[in-house]
Specification:
This protein has one domain. Helices cover 7% and strands 53% of the residues. By secondary structure, it is mainly β.
């Protein structure tokens, strides 16, 4: 089945972002307790919503940013709230 899917060129459309203070920050990578943003951010809030959309199936979780130093890094550790 996988070989057939690959030969037909099918792959999932995956998008992800971190929303803080109403601003969407695109994700480059996400893990169980961290995310890597495409661009560094500067925000005063230490909480947000992490959203991942796979082929239109959207899942989200509210998070609290851990050791956040806005603007100095793209990698952000978090805990679920």
């Amino acid at each position: 089945m996988l070989k057939n899917a690959l030969s037909n060129g099918y792959s999932s459309k995956v998008r992800g972002w971190l929303e803080i203070e109403g601003v969407r920050h695109e994700l480059a990578q996400v893990g169980p307790d961290f995310c890597i943003l495409r661009e560094p951010i500067s925000a005063s809030s230490t909480s947000g919503e992490l959203i991942v959309d796979v082929d239109g199936d959207r899942q989200s979780v509210f998070i609290k940013l851990a050791n956040f130093q806005g603007g100095s890094t793209k990698r952000i550790s978090f805990v679920r709230t």
